[in-house]
Amino acid sequence: MTTEPLRVACIGMGWWSDVLADAIMRSQRIEIAACFTRSADKRDAFAKKYKCRPVANYDDVLADPAIEAIINTTPNDVHLETTRAAAAAGKHVFLDKPIANTVSEGRAISEVCRKAGVVLALGYQRRRENHFRWVKQQIETGLFGKLVNAEANISRDRLGKIDLSSWRYQAVGMPGGVMLQIGIHYTDVLEYLMGPVVAVHGHFAQLILPGDNPDVASLILEHENGALSTLNASYASASEYYLMNIYGKDATAFYDLHNGLRFLKRGEAKSVAVSTYNNDTFVEELEEFAVACRGGRAPEVGGDFATRSLAVVRAGILSAREHRRVEVEEILKND
Question: Staple partner for 250: which of 26, 62, 145, 321, CB 3.0–4.6 Å?
Answer without folding.
Answer: 145
